[in-house]
Amino acid sequence: MNLVITGANRGIGLELTRQSLAQGDTVHAGTRDPAQAQELTALVGDSGGRLHVHALDVTSDESVRAFAAALTGPVELLINNAGLRTRRDDLEDLSLEDALQMLQVNALGTLRVTRAVLPRLREARGAKIASLSSGLGSIADNTSGGGYGYRMSKAALNMATRSLAQDLRGEGIISVAISPGWVQTDMGGASAPTPVSESAVGLLAVIGRLSLQDSGSYFDFRGERIAW
User: How far apart are CA 131 and CA 157, in angstroms?
Assistant: First the structure.
């Protein structure tokens, strides 16, 4: 399978890259600065030419266009993993500038990349778009408040995911939102309950089982549906 993973330099994106390579896939991995992505670039040598590392800033039209132009062949899977959570964004601590930055990366960045890669997705049969969301993006499950910027950005991503599902269903392209859970990454912290490898295994398993009937859905990494 030929796939794209954004935000592949660390955490979940890096582990998704490792596991996809282990499965024999060809991976186009996007990262803001390949020169600083030593763990990612270290995988190139053992990939048998199946790992291609690209510079990608999801907030930049120019960068995204260049990234899409560098892709080769039909893309069967796009994993929109690039994401951002800045400092505390509760009501009293919220920085509107930070909130805007999270919207730019988490929501608009996802849409920007998807639109640019769409011609390659259309070349594949039954391509899939998996956008990594969060349980914090659920409006129905928000019973604790806070997290304004991050919650808003992931809720916006969810809406884009749903619209993509409707717009692309007739072409057989699947679009879903998936939460990786609370994961032991730089963002999630060491106290998170889910190891990165476990989350990545679950994400790839859920993605692998997707059918067109699932398009427009919102899952967790165990395959359970999340309320919008």
Answer: 8
Q: Where are the alpha helices (DSSP H) in 88-147?
A: 96-102, 110-123
User: For the domain that residue 14 is a member of, what is the CATH number?
Assistant: 3.40.50.720
The alpha carbons of the chain give a radius of gyration, in whole angstroms, of: 16
Which range, of 42-51, 101-110, 191-200, averages the lowest pLDDT? 191-200
70 is in which domain, residue-wise? 2-220
Is 0.70 topped by the overall pTM? Answer: yes
Q: How far apart are CA 158 and CA 88, in angstroms?
A: 22
Residue 225 lies in a domain: no
Residue 54 lies in a domain: yes
Query: 200 near 154, Cβ under 8 Å?
Result: no
3-class SS of residue 176: strand
- pLDDT for 63 equals 99
> Per-residue b/e over 112-148, b at no fewer than 16 CB within 10 Å?
bbbebbbebbeebeebbbbbbbbbbbbeeeeeeeebb
**228 belongs to a structural domain:** no
Q: Which residues are catalytic?
A: 150
CB 51 within 8 A of CB 24: no
How far lies 225's CA from each of 126, 138, 214, in Å?
A: 21, 11, 10
Residue 52 and residue 13: Cα distance in Å, rounded? 14
